[in-house]
């Protein structure tokens, strides 16, 4: 019984710590979070161009799919 009580206390403590990290972002604060440095892909146009070139080199039928052949020459 004591083991279940300790596990419940630990779970409650962990839940309190996770909930404490949640916050509401105000509209005037969103500009700080929308900076280009925060993006998963900071330069999507360059990435798209490289993917297109790589797909053309590999003679893939669809985008980056590993279909088709090609020598992969530059």
Automatic annotation (TrEMBL):
Residues 25-73 form the DUF4266 domain. This is DUF4266 domain-containing protein. InterPro entries: DUF4266. PROSITE patterns: PROKAR_LIPOPROTEIN (PS51257). The lineage of its organism: Bacteria, Pseudomonadati, Pseudomonadota, Gammaproteobacteria, Methylococcales.
